[in-house]
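testing teh design pipeline on a random one, pls ignore if ur not involved
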């Protein structure tokens, strides 16, 4: 799928799409795509496990609702850590270079994920089991906090101005492919194993696969060169001394509004996947295998929305498409749970798929939009921090709030919550300028 997309993009873009630094579109696309796909695979297998099994493996002494909340709380820990990862990796990414920082973030994320697969449960370690789980989850968040910004900059800073949306489409497809792979592995295990075997050890297999995937990602990442835009900054010795301070002093508006624009992308994704998986299997009584299969179908809608919006943003503008996706999400939030509550597989797939399509339309252009909001010397820190602060507001709390709302007011209230997040993002992006004509060096 990825190879075909890359070839098609190369053909469509033609010679003008070759990066100024001498890297081919194919090499830049693969290097920026592979890391985000692997790292989001790591992140999503945790979300799937949190919805299906971690409550029983690590919080067996709690009642079902509180065990689910505890499981989702460990999930939220990584979102709290992600802004810290943005500051840490952004500092070195803006001072040392994009490439070396991307290698470090991949290692941290991948190894902490794989160790979750080796961590004994509550029955073996007692209270130490959830505490160590929280620590590993925190390290996951630190790693992912540095990943996205570097991958997006690797693509955007290699691209000619009129192809930045196209180049940025590849790292933006990473979450779609990572989610598809994570869901597919869990679906395969659920379909071929007994419930007892799955809960005893089967859920650990997706985590252990991360050891292999990290090796693949490192092999690809080490072959790419530094971006030509940042190389010019280093040649001129213009690197920021403390990038995050410069972001807060010079770009506070872009930082906060950019984070607000990301809220609905995160909110849609983690409501439509992590929370809906838990809700459908726990409250509606739909089988785990069925829901994972429907999530695989819905993931195709996410990939389609991401690719369509990212590639069209070079002509139509980033802001226009993000506004369109946010507006559509206002409406779809109200339709999502009525479709789920029918318990009809086709309508469930439509509900989740529609939500993920809206998310893709918002998310796709953000790969170029957020980097274009910040100057070269603080771009890694600024784009990463905006992206991950949006994750705290939209992703960390969404499953927790949704669980409480559904328990207190019914599923319709969760849909209203999604629509409210979409309105927040809509307002924030309305206050931002269009950026597709901006020069990146400066």
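output:
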């Amino acid at each position: 799928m990825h190879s075909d997309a890359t070839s098609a993009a190369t053909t469509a873009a033609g010679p003008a799409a070759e990066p100024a630094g001498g890297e081919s579109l194919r090499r830049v696309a693969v290097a920026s795509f592979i890391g985000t796909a692997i790292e989001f695979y790591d992140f999503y297998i945790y979300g799937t496990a949190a919805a299906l099994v971690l409550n029983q493996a690590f919080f067996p002494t709690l009642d079902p609702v509180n065990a689910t909340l505890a499981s989702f709380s460990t999930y939220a820990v990584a979102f709290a850590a992600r802004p810290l990862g943005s500051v840490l990796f952004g500092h070195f990414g803006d001072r040392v270079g994009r490439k070396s920082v991307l290698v470090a973030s991949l290692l941290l994320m991948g190894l902490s994920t794989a160790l979750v697969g080796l961590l004994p449960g509550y029955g073996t370690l007692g209270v130490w089991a959830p505490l160590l789980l929280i620590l590993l989850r925190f390290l996951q968040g630190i790693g992912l906090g540095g990943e996205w910004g570097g991958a997006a900059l690797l693509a955007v800073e290699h691209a000619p101005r009129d192809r930045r949306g196209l180049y940025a489409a590849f790292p933006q497809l990473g979450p779609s492919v990572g989610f598809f792979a994570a869901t597919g592995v869990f679906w395969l295990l659920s379909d071929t194993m007994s419930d007892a075997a799955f809960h005893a050890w089967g859920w650990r297999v997706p985590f252990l696969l991360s050891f292999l995937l990290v090796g693949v990602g490192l092999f690809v990442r080490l072959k790419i060169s530094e971006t030509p835009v940042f190389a010019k900054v280093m040649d001129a010795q213009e690197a920021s001394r403390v990038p995050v301070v410069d972001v807060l002093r010079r770009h506070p508006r872009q930082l906060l509004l950019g984070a607000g624009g990301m809220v609905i992308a995160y909110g849609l994704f983690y409501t439509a996947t992590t929370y809906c998986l838990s809700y459908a299997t726990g409250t509606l009584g739909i089988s785990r295998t069925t829901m994972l299969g429907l999530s695989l179908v819905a993931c195709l809608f996410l990939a389609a929305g991401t690719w369509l919006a990212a590639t069209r943003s070079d002509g139509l503008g980033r802001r226009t498409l993000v506004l369109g996706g946010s507006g559509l999400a206002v409406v779809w939030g109200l339709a999502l749970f009525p479709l789920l509550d029918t318990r009809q597989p086709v309508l469930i797939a439509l509900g989740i798929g529609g939500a993920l399509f809206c998310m893709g339309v918002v998310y796709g252009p953000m790969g170029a939009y957020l980097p274009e909001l910040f100057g070269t010397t603080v771009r890694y820190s600024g784009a990463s921090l905006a992206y991950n602060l949006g994750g705290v507001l939209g992703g960390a709390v969404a499953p927790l709030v949704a669980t409480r709302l559904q328990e207190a007011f019914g599923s319709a209230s969760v849909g209203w919550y999604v629509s409210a997040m979409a309105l927040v993002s809509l307002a924030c992006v309305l206050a931002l300028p269009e950026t597709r004509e901006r020069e990146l060096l400066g």
